[in-house]
């Protein structure tokens, strides 16, 4: 019985997926040469490829730069008050709106730069918040 179980487990976890895994590995290594990836531990490689999944939202707030705004402007204070009351999933949705991904890049949140800009609209009540995802800029009307 032990031999049967060992052979079955080997088949399920190794033999049955060998061809699809080899195809995946060949494609992966074509775009990402193996020499450069060997320096990472598996957990580190996952972070590099997928980004961070744990967030310090107060650090994000601390690293924001303001253009045509000051940190103590009412609009900014209201924005952060509402943001910090959001559930975690909504905060991730905002991050996806802002950057195109609900994860922080592998280099870390302390280097993830965000700007909040006043678009200086004549009638800010008629303008919705918008973003430049490439530069992580939030255009937030007053």
From TrEMBL:
Keyword field contains Cell cycle: no
MF term (GO), any: ubiquitin protein ligase activity
Gene3D superfamilies in alphabetical order: Hect, E3 ligase catalytic domain, Hect, E3 ligase catalytic domains
Domain HECT: 1-142
GO BP field: protein polyubiquitination
Active site positions: 134 (glycyl thioester intermediate)
InterPro entries in the cross-refs: E3A/B/C-like (IPR044611), HECT_dom (IPR000569), Hect_E3_ubiquitin_ligase (IPR035983)
Leading EC class: transferase
PANTHER family: HECT-TYPE E3 UBIQUITIN TRANSFERASE, UBIQUITIN-PROTEIN LIGASE E3C
Name this protein carries in UniProt: HECT-type E3 ubiquitin transferase
Species assigned in the record: Oceanodroma tethys
Lineage: Eukaryota, Metazoa, Chordata, Craniata, Vertebrata
Gene assigned in the entry: Herc4_0
């Amino acid at each position: 019985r032990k031999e049967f179980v060992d052979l079955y487990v080997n088949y399920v976890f190794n033999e049955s997926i060998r061809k699809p895994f080899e195809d995946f590995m060949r494609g992966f290594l074509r775009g990402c040469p193996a020499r450069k990836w060997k320096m990472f531990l598996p957990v580190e490689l996952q972070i590099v490829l997928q980004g961070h999944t744990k967030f310090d939202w107060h650090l994000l707030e601390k690293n924001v730069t303001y253009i045509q705004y000051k940190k103590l402007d009412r609009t900014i204070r209201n924005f952060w008050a509402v943001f910090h009351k959001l559930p975690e999933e909504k905060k991730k949705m905002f991050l996806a709106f802002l950057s195109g991904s609900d994860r922080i890049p592998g280099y870390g949140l302390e280097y993830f730069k965000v700007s909040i800009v006043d678009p200086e609209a004549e009638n800010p009540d008629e303008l919705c918040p918008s973003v430049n995802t490439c530069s992580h800029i939030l255009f937030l009307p007053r």
